[in-house]
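Incident log, entry 3
Record: GNAT family N-acetyltransferase (149 residues)
Problem: checksum mismatch between cached and fresh output.
Input:
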Amino acid sequence: MFLVKQLQSQLPENINRLVFESKREGFRFLVRLVDDFLVGTNTFSASGEILYGVFDEKGNLVGVGGLNKDPYSTDKTLGRLRRFYVDPNYRRHGIGRLLLHTIIEFAKDHYDQLVLYTDTEQGDKFYTSMGFLRSQEFGRSSHHLNLTK
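Fresh output:
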């Protein structure tokens, strides 16, 4: 059983374990998440923005993902999926789908399109399985999802 919770005023203490795992896989975006959150440059707290964590039954943080206004566009109808990561030991258990579905449902109330960037085959397969289209139609993105359908 997994629980998705909004992360608001502070990051969970055990986020460092996720940061460590992500760095082992060659990803640095969770380091950026923590750094930006601590200095206040991106706390996912503006209107239409949110950050979620997924916790297991013991309260361990096993996934994280957020939504921002797209910082690379002046189009206010674009939301950007950011800092999306699931602990490798918990993949293939539906956590990514649960988290992404939660973010998409929130995004529908704020945006017309949801964009993201991934450069991995695994990410591409995951996002396209969730309905995203491979596209560079929107700047600095690899995939998009129309939220108005």
